Automatic annotation (TrEMBL):
Gene source species: Polyangium mundeleinium
Domain Trehalose synthase N-terminal residue range list: 48-199
Protein name (record): Glycosyl transferase family 1
Keywords: Glycosyltransferase, Transferase
Signal peptide limits: none
Length: 391
């Protein structure tokens, strides 16, 4: 039987690369803070626990943040939890609720609590073999939140990091927080991305605000010349080939070693890929109802349906739905968008491209994602997004 808990390797990254951006003083201050924390831990480990190593913003941030923490001398490690599809269906329902949405509308009742808690109890058995009394455990989002009572009982110092939330409270938001309360009320430190995400019950001094961060040196932020961008997008299948002369699929990884785009995307389209010169409207996101890819497709269709020969194409791109373990809605959303695509008249379908991007290599995926965004032409983007935003 496969273990539920899996360790994710975080590549060590040096803080020195930030000196040109932030200055030596800021980097020295960060190292000083790390040394102080290392002394306070007295040999303890900082564990980060979430539900997936690929396919979302939390995983992307952890790859960078843990790498820099390790580079500063801290013993920081990353574990992912596992569970059956029913567990992830419930956690996705919670995800929607905390955004103020009903999701699949299923009840967050005692039966849901049983599945949620029993799954995390099985994960906790494996975690206790790794986590020692005095270690720090940072739980990310609703999926592992139910581990908190068991880890606290084992002597760990537990924090909960909530990356999601809603600006306005409604019945669904309250439902989600009521579900999580029995697991989180004993946690003494919580970290939210925005002040407005903090529920009333935790506005008692235990909540801190830490905004999401972007690694300036991640593969998504590296500069590539036009020749390389075109080579990669033709190779992946987003744009029409053949690639330009002497194609270049190379990039520099976050640890300064060379990388290369090897994989291609799975793309649903009618006919040919767009040419390099074709203006594009691009959305890159998870296949999640909250991202409303179906709405974007319908909005695009309504905008161009009266044009005999539309001068713009739409690319909807997301992770391969078979590669993200903690998102059971992904396949269903992609299927719904695919059905809507097939229902469009041929003149519309010829200008729509549904791309599932490879995720086996996180940094390769990042390069592909940002190259997809690079294909947008600013004039077209302004015109089309203005129309879509008016929906």
């Amino acid at each position: 039987m496969m273990d539920l808990v899996q360790e994710v390797h975080a590549q060590i990254r040096s803080l020195e690369r930030f000196v040109p951006l932030l200055g030596q003083t800021a980097v020295d201050d960060a190292r000083s803070l790390a040394r102080g924390l290392h002394e306070r831990l007295a040999g303890g480990v900082i564990w980060n626990v979430n539900s997936t190593a690929v396919g979302g913003g939390v995983a992307e941030m952890l790859h960078s943040l843990l790498g820099y923490a390790r580079g500063a001398g801290l013993d920081v490690r990353w574990l992912t939890i596992g569970g059956a599809p029913e567990f992830f269906r419930i956690t996705k329902r919670l995800h929607h609720a905390l955004h103020g949405d009903r999701g699949d509308g299923s009840p967050l009742d005692e039966a849901a609590h049983h599945v949620y808690a029993s799954t995390l109890c099985r994960n906790a058995v494996e975690l206790r073999e790794l986590v020692r009394s005095g270690d720090v455990v940072l739980l990310h989002d609703p999926q592992p939140a139910g581990l908190a009572p068991m880890l606290l009982a084992a002597g760990a110092r537990v924090l909960w990091r909530c990356h999601i939330g809603a600006d306005e409270t409604n019945e669904e938001v309250e439902l989600g927080w009521r579900f999580l309360a029995r697991y989180l009320d004993g946690v003494g430190c919580m970290i939210f991305s925005r002040e407005r995400y903090v529920p009333a019950r935790y506005r008692d001094g235990r909540a801190s605000i830490v905004q999401p961060s972007i690694d300036a040196f991640s593969a998504k932020n590296i500069e590539l010349d036009e020749h390389t961008v075109r080579s990669i997008l033709v190779h992946v299948g987003i744009l029409e080939g053949p690639p330009p002369p002497s194609p270049n699929y190379a990039f520099v990884r976050s640890d300064d070693t060379p990388g290369r785009v090897e994989r291609s995307a799975d793309i649903l389209r009618l006919g040919r890929a767009p040419a390099w010169e074709t203006p594009l409207v691009v959305q890159v996101s998870r296949w999640d109802p909250l991202k409303d890819m179906l709405g974007v497709l319908c909005g695009f269709s309504s905008m161009v349906q009266h044009h005999a020969a539309p001068a713009v194409d739409l690319v909807l791109a997301g992770p391969n739905v078979r590669a993200v373990a903690d998102d059971p809605e992904g396949p269903a959303v992609f299927e719904a968008v695919s059905r809507a695509f097939l229902e469009q008249p041929p003149a519309i379908r010829a200008h729509v491209h549904l791309a599932m991007l490879p995720t086996a290599d996180v940094e390769e995926n990042a390069v592909i994602v940002m190259r997809c965004n690079a294909t947008r032409r600013s004039s077209c983007k302004r015109a089309c997004t203005r129309g879509l935003a008016s929906r």
